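hi!! sorry for the late reply, been swamped w classes. u asked for the two structures so here they r. pasted raw, havent cleaned anything up. first the sequence of the first protein and right below it the tokens
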Amino acid sequence: MNKVYICDSDDINLEASLDGGQAFRWWGDKEKYRGVIRDNVYIISKENSSIYIENLTSEINNKSLSELKVYLGLNFNLKKFTNHYKEQNYIYKLILSNQGLRILHQDPWEATISFITSSVSNVLKIKNNINKLSSIAGNKIGEGMNDYTFPTAKKIFELGESELRKIGFGFRSPYIIDAAYKNMKNQIDFQKLREIEYEKCLNKLLEVKGIGKKVADCIMAYGLGRRDVFPVDRWVRRGLVNRLKYKNIYTNEKLSDLARIKFKNDSAYIQQYIFYGEKTS
């Protein structure tokens, strides 16, 4: 099986999920995207009322299909989530107007470097930086210009800070090197970080130079599959303050803490709908 049905088109919004600011290795338009997941190149497309996924580098079997569904967040019960917020007007409208937005379950190492890169940047620049890095230090696995694996910590460390600056990472370059070093020395145990309580996970990620609370929350949400996190940027702040009436005097960190306490394990999804809804409205 090289091209298989994965779900109905109502189950996932490809544009919002693949190209909405949580992943940076997908290129395409609203109904067809090409990207890399670990060491495989995929095309995900909407055809009529179905979503199909095609592997350009190897065969899709039942095991890999199950893994792809996890990556796309299809194991999250969106219907139950939607019904739970029917009485909360702003959130419910966001969910309905961006139906099918899901949080991807990405490789935690790739997510770590991606969100260190995201500091004081924009989605297109992050995508260009990350894909350039992959083309230099990753392995070529397909015929497309971005068909490269994401480089290991060792490869990035060997590349060095000066080369990262040449690629365009700027002031983030030493932070990326520090993350690579700590990863190589097993000072970052991603599996353990998935399981420990939020504050301990946050503090461990904050040990990496250049990682603040917002970046750490993004790594937890998009790379570790944690749902008890609430990253706050200017778009999420706008929704919290203007629509949910949180106090404007609060810092983003304070807003994050308050929203995380309120929304508990729905936090990551609530903030993602606020982020995407505010950014695209």
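now the second protein. again sequence first, tokens right under
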Amino acid sequence: MKTKLRHSAVGFLAAFAVVSLLPVAAHAGMKLELDGDSPTNVGTALKMAVILTGLTLAPAMILTTTSFVRIAVVLSFLRNALGTQNMPPNQVLMGLAFFLTVAIMAPIGHELYDSGLGPFLEGKMPAAEAITKGTKPLKHFMIKQTRKTDLALFYDINHVARPKGPDDVGMHLLVPAFVISELRTSFEMGFVLYLPFLLIDLVVASTLMALGMVMVPPAMLSLPIKIMLFVLADGWNVIVASLVRSFL
């Protein structure tokens, strides 16, 4: 059981970091070996700088290749629509977004570990083959969520021939296309979230105007009403369920 849990954690964190960083190094023609017989004759100090820089950027790479972007943006829209300002706190929302990301990406993390990272760490597979096989599950997930027009945009920007299949899509072009597709989707979901709360604000403001209570801020009355309706509708369950289903 402990081994399975350890593999789950490694499969989600380490696998995403490896498949995000190694293709960049391979695309640049650099082999990150720390011995003195490197075929590229790159100094050990320079290699260490590249590795440390890659580790620094690894969290951003992991977050932008998973479901985190959509979840975080939608939850932020929800808080703004409710008008609760800093409630829930940003740390709570980001923590919820992170663990929802772990839950959604866990099957892909297992595939990454089993097909590429695990055999590579055990010495059963060379790095090049591990990269090729390990990136396939992640690529398929990202391509499924990426609009064709967004992906075509970056191929046109780089003046690169269109890929023949999903396995031929370059990660350096897929990642930005995936991110802007996720932003579009999250903004669409945020707009839908705003509508019922906006309607409540309009009804409260119109009622106050009709009663001649122009000095009473509408937010003072609409906020508790929105919170009450959101809780009665089991809003958190509905929002989380909708987010999870949007990736299926």
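hope this helps!! also noticed smth abt the second:
Residues 171-210 form the longest helix (40 residues).
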